[in-house]
Amino acid sequence: MLKTGPAPQPGILSISPYVPGESSTPGGVRPIKLSSNETPLGPSPKAVAAYKAVAEELHRYPDGAAGALRHAIAQRYGLDAERIVCGCGSDELINLIAHAYIGPGEEAIYSEHGFLMYRIATLSSGGTPVSAPEPAHRADVDAMLARVNAKTKVVFLANPNNPTGTYLSHGEVRRLHQGLPSQTLLVLDAAYCEYVRRNDYEAGLELVATTDNTVMTRTFSKIYGLAALRLGWAYCPAAVADVLNRVRGPFNVTAPAIAAGVAALQDRAHVETAVAHNEKWLPWVTAEIEKLGLKVTPSVGNFVLIHFPSARGKDAAAADEFLKARGIIMRRVAAYGLPDCLRMTIGTEDDNHQVVAALAALLGRS
Ligand SMILES: Cc1ncc(COP(=O)(O)O)c(C=O)c1O
After folding, report:
1. Atom of ligand 1 nearest to the CA of 37
2. How many C-beta atoms surround the C-beta of residue 246 within 10 A?
3. At 132, phi and psi to the nearest 5?
4. What pLDDT, on the 0 to 100 scale, is given for residue 25?
5. Against a cut of 0.85, is the pTM above it?
């Protein structure tokens, strides 16, 4: 580290930079990329057409208020467009929330294996990240509440969580909210909510509608298949939307992203196909991998956390190398405190079969 020159704000050098999922394999063969929880079905053709249609207008600034998109979201979910804030991915919204609400000496709570951006955003705002232990790879409301104090500005909860795939029921999320003081903001990150098929799950709309200190974030990167465009949104209490609109860049969402986002929302059939695909392949992948003797954390998202034994040659690091040599890229999750696991995104039918065959070969079961 440099000893001279401008020093960054406290906390910045404690950040371990986020390492995205890999996208290439050593042999250069076209990989089966299952490392970033992208949809195997690609974007809606209608979204692609809308994106292309903007090409001749690239010299124009986008609508800084992303009005068409906010209204399309509001219409789709029955929301108040004034309380929607769009961002360059939900990552940007997480960062904006941290910058606006967390300062030096203040704290943000997240669960032990929670999405890494919460820690990064908190540190980059000068705040102190506080991790709550997670028994059984699932956020623990009591452990989170036990860490709340007068300095707690934000509680981040990914529901379902990445990389574990587990979720909290609406009742548990409500209990978490009830235990928070009114000056603490609860951020419900529902990046994978469209995939969840559970009667006791609610993405967060109800709590945002009925409380003054809950925000829900959503993304177009996952089921909508628009990760490259970087598009997310937050549904907020009016006062929080006002704050985020003050701190965001004036043109933080691009015109192609707005156009594609509106079209993607309207293509309900594409989303339903993705849900049906996941409903079929998530249980299949889970069961087939368990049959090989590996533990899989029960997931409600479009990915699974696979636990590997500690035996040399069969551990997570060795499995990762073995799979990569066969063109299959999963995600190492040691940075999440899960060194014995790999996270696999549910792929196409062929991808899923290839993964199971490769794992069987690794474990000598083929
Ligand atoms: C839980 C969770 N939240 C947020 C994000 C960020 O998504 P975006 O692409 O909208 O920035 C991800 C991406 O992996 C995620 O897993």
Report:
1. 14
2. 9
3. -100, 130
4. 76
5. yes
